[in-house]
Amino acid sequence: METLKTFFQGVEALPSFPAVGVRIIQEMRKENASINELAAIISYDPALTAKMLKVANSSFYSCQHKVDSIERAVSVLGLKSIKDIALSFTIVKGFKKNTVDRFDHELFWKRSITAAVSAEMIASALKMNRNDIFVTSLLMDIGVLVMYLSKPAEYLSVIDEKLVSHVSTVESERAVFQFDHQELGSEILKEWELPESIYMPIAFHHRITDCPQEYLPAAEVLMLADMASSVYFSDKSTQKLKMLSEEFQKRLHMSEDDVNVFVSSIGEKTIEILKNFDIDSGGVKPFLQMVKEANEEIGKLNLSYDQLVLELKQEKKRIKNLSNELKNANSKLGKVSSIDSLTGIHNHRFFQEFMEKEMQRAERYKRSMSLILMDID
Q1: What pTM was estimated for this model as a whole?
Q2: How many angstroms separate the CA atoms of 324 and 98, rounded?
């Protein structure tokens, strides 16, 4: 906790949760949640209203008459769909950053939405009555995004450490920050005054054995949803599928074929939802289609088992060498970009960036600012 407090003090400004999102969650937690009230909340956000109307008029819902009001859109889409789409859109829009760097923001949200779809389907299969499981899963990795936006250089070193050392994201984060995205995400959501039922399971979704009993069912769903999304986006997809299959067979009494069909349906539904956002669904395919394409490629290769093993070993060695080179290069680039090679002191670029931050800080806190110029001969 002390390390987290130090982190909060060290960043200039943490992002705030979208106000519309907070109001949607508050309304949905009411026992008598009102469609009209939800429509009124959504109508305060013009971009969200336009998105809802676009979805309601899409071919997926095939309405005979044009949907031209948010009230009509809510009735067409239904309370639950409206909640999921509205929350997803406001959160993604609020935290989407247009930047060109090594942190893939679009991939982050693709994975988060896939996890949210997975969590909802898993909770339904377990007959768990949790109206907020979609948004809980959507936000379970929000700590990753906050870490990066607050300390980009440090979080890129987390990515490097994970690539080179082959450790988990949580282990790599702890090595750099002394805490991980579960803890940070949970604290952020608590600061945003979201309910305990959302932020407590998030704090334990990678350490289930430590989770308090009352939040354990939701934390387990998040864990399984993370595995399911990893099947589509992780470099350990085969391992994650095996773990997921074992869990599903134990908890839901599914056969291996049933698990494959279930995971494939997650991909199908995710593709449908991604179409509602400004996120390209390219690369996301139903699992069974991925398996079919992989088998076809293997058949074309017509290689022996020994040849495949040899090529795999060579590729692993090449990737490891490349990861080490990348880590060293990024470390050098970080220094070169802000340090003068001749004198060893900070350069003009560093001054401009530092000056801009100080000006923003002075403006934000309404403080005066002074600049002292000295010519050292």
Answers
A1: 0.69
A2: 28
